[in-house]
Structure formats: structure tokens, C-alpha cells
Amino acid sequence: MKQEEILSILKEKQAVLEGHFILTSGKHADTYIQCARILQDPKITSLFVSELLKEMKDLEIDLVIGPATGGIIIAYEAARQLGVNAIFTERENGKMTLRRGFKIPKEASVLVVEDVVTTGGSVREVLEVVNKQGGKVVAIGLFADRTGGKIDFKIPTYRIFSKEIQSYEPENCPLCKKDILAIKPGSRGLK
Fold it and tell me: Which residues are registered as beta bridge partners of 86?
């Protein structure tokens, strides 16, 4: 699929929002990508995951992992299509960890997935968990990369949608200077 087709679907599903947003990273932006609007539709989720996996067809993948909450459904669908297991990390006392009895077998080839990246913080935390468990990350799959492909995890990274979306530290935010109300959508903000 072409980027224009992906963007059209994102807009149709109201997964691209415009306004003044506080991102998970704490930065501010005038555009927010809400992949939960995509993940509620199994057909589109399956299509997007299928597009991601096409790029990885030559990789051996034993396990798929994603951070809660954005990566859970993507990990499940990728694992379903690959015929492997899916697990997820979650925060416990502010630290990304495996819970619920999840384990990563030593030397397992692992695909890490995430819905949206801005700074890559959650993905880096998941990479650390996989490494500590003795797994080997062979690829990263993203639904949306807000850096326009500039983020580098030093691991092959595949993206469904990639566009550089400017974000600002709160003290340098032009939207704050215009007194435009900032909202924090998503899993750690307003509903």
C-alpha cells in the first residue's frame, strides 16, 4: 500500500487528529495519531499487519511482543498471521516489564511491534526487556512513525505510515504561547 492510501484510511477512521496535544513523551504537537481508531477495526488491523509482514517475509520470527496498550492488538494479529505466540510488556512501578507469567525463550527470534512512535521510548524499553530475557530482536514493526523515519533503533524497522510531525518541548510550544488548550488523548490521558 502507498502512503497516500494509508493516510486516507487513517483520516477516514479519524485516527489523525489536529489541535494541541500532549504526547506520551510529554512533548506537545498539533497533530495526534490515534491508532486505537484503527485497531478497533479487525479488517484494517489485519490489512496493516499484513502489509508490515510482507516486508519481513524472509525473517525467521519465533515470538511477537509489543508494549501495552498500543502494541497488544498488533502483536496478537502479527503472531496470528505468523503462526507464533504473542506476549506484551506493561509498566509496573513505572518500569516496563513482563508479567502474567510471560517468558521469552533464550535465543528466540523476536519481532517487536508498536502502534505509534514519537521518541521511541517504549520500543527501547521493550528491546531492553527482550535482551535481558535472552531473546534476539530481528525486526521492529510500527503502524505510525511520527519522526518521518529518522528514529534509528539499530535494528531493521518497518513502518506502515511514516511522516515527520513536529513536536515541541512544553516551554517552546508555539501552541501554548497562543493559549490554545492542550489535551492529552490516548491511554494515559483523557478519554
Answer: 64
Q: Known binder of ligand: residue 100? A: no
Model pTM score: 0.88
Q: Where are the domains of the chain?
A: 3-177
Q: How long a stretch of residues is the chain? A: 191
C-alpha span between 150 and 162 (Å, rounded): 9
What is the C-alpha separation between 94 and 78, in angstroms, rounded?
Answer: 27
60 known ligand binder:
no
The CATH architecture of the domain made up of 3-177 is 3-Layer(aba) Sandwich (3.40)
Is 114 labelled a binding residue? yes
Distance (Å, rounded) from C-alpha 7 to C-alpha 92?
34
Beta bridge partners, 98, equal 89
pLDDT, tens only, 138-160: 999 999 998 999 999 999 999 99
